Amino acid sequence: MARIEGGPPAVRGYLVFREVEPGLWHLVGDVDHRPGLAMRAERAQAVRDATGADPAGGSYAALSRDQWHVMHRG
What we know:
There is one protein chain. This protein is of the alpha+beta class. It is built from 2 helices and 3 strands. It has helices at residues 39-51, 65-73, and strands at 13-21, 24-32, 60-64. A hairpin with a 2-residue loop joins strand 1 and strand 2 (24-32).
């Protein structure tokens, strides 16, 4: 898992979340960037890599580490 705070900058990638009940999301994985995929395909692949599940089969979200860092620090 990449360091989010302090130290060298994190490698591009995604934090993958699963909705366990309406409005409640749990972090299920941290996946590095895979070059060569379009953003939408890359997010779907991040869900597959983190969970082994088909992203269409559940409520998942893949948020880029950069977005999470900005939201988390608020």
